[in-house]
């Protein structure tokens, strides 16, 4: 029986478009996805603002809240919570050059409007977490933005969110690159430093995604540990990634099972979830999957996470201590691999 509560986003069941090709699967309606998430064994759903309120740019603030109420009912009917809302600031023509760091003040206003509406939506869904995946807050052409001013602009934007709602908690989801070349906030360390510059550091934390850490050339388990040590790890997006190339969002553990084990181990050891944090799975089905099997990666990720949790609970700390005392790390390494490999 897992001690974790698991969450997932509607974008994790997608139509299969990539940078080089169109969709290959039909869209599945949100209510159907929500029902299925429950059946698979999830506890909560993560949302982009426009997952909840499609075409929200054309709606009044009141209409946005009304639509969010309807989605809340669907969640309630299915016995699921909402974990967070994230403004989707990378799709709109107004955020081509970034949101909070755009060179155009009108675009920055639009980004701020979406962030505040996301807070409204979060309130209607009954959650107090806003995730900022700072997708385009960086540059394609290095000299196109002032990098110091840009960091300060992100801090100012977060301050406005904190002022707008005294309960909202802002989680920065870090990623070093893609869709931009260089990000202004690439790692968990950056997120924490940034949080400390805001008007209320206790309400600004981080979300670590495994693949994003790997893309930064870092170890995801140590990024998780750094967040935990700073009491700033308020969500995770577990998935996998084969080396430093395009963002793959693969099923958790399929590329590097030991690295996956160590992520789960550090979460287990630190009693992650004790303050209600969820283990999110930000995984995507391969483009080749047929529609009838487009949830398979979710089943598999959940299964692997739970098996690794079980293994982490069986970890023999007495043997580890002995190996450490003898400085016999070869023995310790083999023990870990045996633990992972044996049934
Ligand atoms: C990027 C995700 C993105 C965020 C939430 O990793 O797919 O959607 O997790 O905004
Ligand atoms: Mg993510």
UniProtKB/TrEMBL annotation:
Molecular functions per Gene Ontology: metal ion binding; xylose isomerase activity
EC number from the UniProt entry: 5.3.1.5
InterPro entries in alphabetical order: IolE/XylAMocC-like, Xyl_isomerase-like_sf, Xyl_isomerase-like_TIM-brl, Xylose_isomerase
Catalytic activity from the UniProt record: alpha-D-xylose = alpha-D-xylulofuranose
Domain Xylose isomerase-like TIM barrel, chain residue ranges per copy: 35-249
Enzyme class: isomerase
SUPFAM superfamilies: Xylose isomerase-like
Keywords annotated in UniProt: Carbohydrate metabolism, Cytoplasm, Isomerase, Metal-binding, Xylose metabolism
Compartments where found: Cytoplasm
Gene Ontology CC entries for this record: cytoplasm
GO BP terms in the entry: D-xylose metabolic process
PANTHER family cross-referenced by the UniProt entry: HYDROXYPYRUVATE ISOMERASE (PTHR12110), XYLOSE ISOMERASE (PTHR12110:SF52)
Oligomer and partners: Homotetramer.
Stated family: Belongs to the xylose isomerase family.
Annotated protein name in UniProt: Xylose isomerase
The species this protein was found in: Atribacter laminatus
């Amino acid at each position: 029986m897992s001690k974790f509560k698991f969450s997932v986003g509607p974008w994790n069941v997608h139509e299969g478009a990539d940078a080089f090709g169109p969709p290959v699967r039909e869209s599945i309606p949100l209510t159907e996805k929500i029902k299925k998430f429950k059946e698979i064994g999830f506890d909560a759903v993560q949302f982009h603002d426009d997952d909840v309120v499609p075409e929200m740019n054309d709606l009044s603030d009141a209409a946005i809240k009304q639509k969010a109420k309807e989605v809340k009912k669907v969640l309630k009917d299915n016995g699921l919570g909402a974990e967070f809302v994230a403004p989707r600031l990378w799709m709109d023509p107004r955020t081509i050059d970034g949101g909070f760091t755009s060179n155009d003040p009108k675009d920055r206003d639009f980004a701020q409007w979406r962030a505040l509406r996301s807070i409204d939506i979060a309130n209607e869904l009954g959650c107090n977490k806003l995730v900022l995946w700072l997708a385009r807050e960086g540059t394609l052409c290095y000299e196109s933005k002032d990098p110091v001013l840009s960091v300060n602009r992100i801090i100012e934007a977060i301050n406005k969110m904190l002022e707008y709602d005294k309960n909202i908690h802002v989680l920065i989801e870090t990623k070093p690159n893609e869709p931009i070349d260089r990000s202004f906030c690439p790692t968990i360390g950056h997120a924490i430093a940034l949080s400390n510059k805001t008007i209320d550091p206790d309400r600004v934390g981080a979300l670590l995604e495994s693949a994003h850490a790997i893309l930064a050339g870092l170890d995801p388990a140590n990024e998780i540990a750094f967040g935990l040590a700073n009491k700033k790890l308020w969500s995770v997006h577990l998935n996998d990634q084969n080396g430093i190339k395009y963002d793959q969002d693969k099923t958790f553990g399929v590329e590097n099972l030991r690295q996956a084990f160590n992520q789960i181990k550090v979460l287990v050891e630190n009693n992650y979830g004790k303050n209600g944090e969820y283990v999110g799975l930000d995984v995507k089905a391969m483009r080749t999957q047929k529609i009838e099997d487009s949830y398979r990666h979710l089943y598999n990720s959940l299964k692997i996470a739970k098996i690794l949790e079980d293994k982490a609970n069986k970890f023999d700390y007495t043997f580890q201590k002995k190996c450490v005392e003898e400085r016999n790390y070869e023995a310790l390494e083999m023990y870990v691999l045996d633990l992972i490999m044996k049934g």
